[in-house]
Amino acid sequence: MTEETTPSRSADHPLGATHPLALAPVAAPASTVDGFVREFLRNLNFDRGVALTSSTPNDRYMALAYTVRDYLMARWLEDLRRQRHAQAKGVCYLSAEFLLGRQLDNNLLATGLTDIAADALAQCGVDLDELRQLEVEPGLGNGGLGRLAACFIDSLATLGVPNIGYGIRYEYGIFRQTFVDGQQVEQPDAWLTLGNPWEFPHPESARTISFGGHTETYDDEGVTRTRWVPGWTVRAVPYNYMVPGYQNGRVNTLRLWSAQATSAFDLRIFNSGDYAEAVRARTFAENISKVLYPEDSTPQGKELRLQQQYFFVAASISDFLDGVLPDDFDLAKLPDRVIFQLNDTHPVIGVPELMRVLVDERKMEWDAAWEITRQCFAYTCHTLLPEALEVWSVDLLGRLLPRHLEIIYRINDEFLAEVRERFGDDEMRLRNMSIIAEYPQRSVRMAYLATVAGAKVNGVAELHSQLLRDKVLPDFNEFFPGKFTNVTNGVTPRRFVRLANPDLSALISEALGGTWLTDLERLRELETFAEDPQFRQAFADVKAANKRRLSELLRHRDGFEVSDGHMLDVMVKRLHEYKRQMLKLLHIVSLYEGIVSGRVAASEVTARTFIFGAKAAPGYLMAKRIIHLINAVGSVVNADPRVEGRLKVLFPPNYNVTLAERVVPAADLSEQISLAGKEASGTGNMKFALNGALTIGTDDGANVEIRELVGDDNFFLFGMREPQVQELSDRGYRPSEFYQADENLRRAIDLIASGAFSGGDRSVFEPVVSNLLYEDRFMVLADFTSYLEAQTKVDAAYADQEAWTRKAILNVARCGFFSSDRSMRDYIERIWHTPPLR
Ligand SMILES: *Cc1c(COP(=O)(O)O)cnc(C)c1O
């Protein structure tokens, strides 16, 4: 079979219509313990080819996964049938990243099988908990953006909205982080090595994706058309994943693409005579889906990255048009049938791709095609950092995708003509709004292309959306009134409350009954329970138990000893200077310096265990130095008897979703301390608040909305607001002035500079110190004094445990808004117009 074969669609096949068994819904296995035992053993014997007595733990994990999968299968097939039949409008969520986290537990929860599975396995002498630990999480994302995509598809399935998530099946996900002498060392994430029971490859539905070559015009019965003559092609093979709704019988699909060499490469094997060279050429094609780029927020303009983007977007659009839509579908009606949501700029090349398909392949008029395209895309912007706004040099884009560059030029020409019509020959405005930047090199601004093409453009928190309109894209906001909107991010309460915090969930269910997990605003009803001493005690007991569970995990995982009775002060997120892990660290160093210098009695310092979790992009040297410094401070502080029992710094390596699920429920204090105006939203902040941690945070991203909801008394605000940041920056920021003005700050920085954390060698952290004193782009020093004051308030509040617990309960009660179910409803209402399918 060649890659050109049209994928068959079994529902349309005559066989499907004639055989009665093919029409009957597939029966799910019986939901009983005995039924589960039978299915588990059957899978062990027939799919793994082993007997229980001779099985390895991985065999048992795989057989368990197959069993759970079988329960979902009937619903999945039914949902596919339902969606095919209804032909209702659905969402194609295009995202280069899906940071899914482990699947087993989520799928057990979705099917309501957790207890049955545990009992059934116990009857076989197998421990469910042990098997859980064997799953390697699919780390197909860097951080917040990829995790958001995973939360969204969970919520869409739970709401019953037709959705296909489209992305890339990276063979290696985000690297596994280890520390060697306190410094980050990256290990490959070979997550597929032991097999992946959750995916279904469909090589027969592969798409052919083209690259390179040139374009030419030809006469098509009197009409001049363009065609793309590509230089090379690869096969995109889809792997389907089930995305189950929460106990609602619904299952959507996540389709991830894997790159394979086409037969064109095979031919070379036979023809070239150079077998080894030909096989290497195959590797060239397959490299496209080999590895996730580990840069978060600062994309490198790498050719392979553009190849990845076009590869998955072209495959997805082709899949939807040729595989999902019926053969006789009238493409003029495409906007009634689908919305392609662009998760950041990574999939924006889909805009010229759809134009190419409509104009070149389906032979539509340009204007008609543009009318359709403009309605079929919507764009989510995720950043405010200028260095995170993706651009592709015209050279590179033209070489890799010559036809797409032509289309982008034409889109831009027509757009600028409209701008000129409205505003006249305002050269500066035209340059500012052009999709093509001329300086420092001629390149395509992908965010502008997305904004021009998108039916809607949304930011991810109120403040972010406002800054997007007023500062990043003000000309576009003026030109396209009503195009910009906000949808504040959310997180799925299934994973981040129910699975991560089973004891809290049980407590909530006891208080409110069972439906809160799909109606998270119901948490409001907990407000009255905050006044009930018995409930407070139960809530505090849950937090204490979660801390013990975390201690246990860290002891086994990393050999850490977590001290009893400490406040758990947690900062977990990607390492980035704008997130300001340095500010947290200066606080710690300042506390330490205060005690060891004798200025502060150890007994007066609130006992805290600080937990960091953070990966740095491998090429981001300053971020790596900061990781090194955190570890160095930890080694010194943890070994110093003068602060024993008071301060402890733990940095478990390899922060990922699995670790987040254990750290978040145990935290007392959530550190959300980015420089105001830099964190678009954050979602970690939401996870913590929903699990009863109090936030110390700046007026940034969704912190703003968290504080509005939980109330000033239940949130520790500090630092400059965005307008003040702007003002200071306009005035000329000189960090050394702040260093001079605050003795605590001076002493903390001096201690680092002295080599106290590097065996006396002052050179090791010299770049970090210099950067703070002379540049400090994210104004750590300017916010230090305010931060320490807020931390003093935290100490005072923590001293009254009853009052603290009350605040924690109110945080939970008032953060139901941050369910990703609500985010999805907002997208549906403001952007997608895709009601649930009944
Ligand atoms: C939620 C999450 C993030 C995002 O955290 P922020 O604090 O919003 O940056 C990153 N990584 C993982 C593993 C997460 O679960």
Mind explaining what this structure looks like?
It contains 35 helices and 25 strands. The protein is an alpha/beta fold. It folds into 3 domains: 99 residues, no CATH class; 373 residues, Glycogen Phosphorylase B (Rossmann fold), CATH 3.40.50.2000; 249 residues, Glycogen Phosphorylase B (Rossmann fold, 3-Layer(aba) Sandwich), CATH 3.40.50. Strands 1, 4, 7, 8, 11, 12, 13, 14, 18 and 19 form a 10-stranded mixed sheet that branches. α27 links the parallel β23 and β24. α23 crosses α34, α24 packs across α31 and α30 crosses α31. The structure holds pyridoxal-5'-phosphate (PLP). Pyridoxal-5'-phosphate (PLP) binds next to α8, α26 and α27.
Q: Just name the CATH architecture of the largest domain.
A: 3-Layer(aba) Sandwich
Largest beta-sheet details: 10 strands, mixed
Mean pLDDT: 94
Domain module tally: 3
DSSP strand content: 5-15%
How many helices in DSSP terms? 35
The CATH superfamily title of the largest domain? Glycogen Phosphorylase B
Specify the helix fraction band. 40-55%
Q: Report low-confidence residues grouped into runs of 5 or more.
A: 1-12
List cofactors, ions and other ligands.
Answer: pyridoxal-5'-phosphate
Strand runs, count: 25
Shape: globular
Helix/strand-derived class?
Answer: alpha/beta
N-to-C span: 38 Å
Radius of gyration: 28 Å
CATH class of the largest domain: Alpha Beta
Stated plainly, the CATH topology of the largest domain is called Rossmann fold
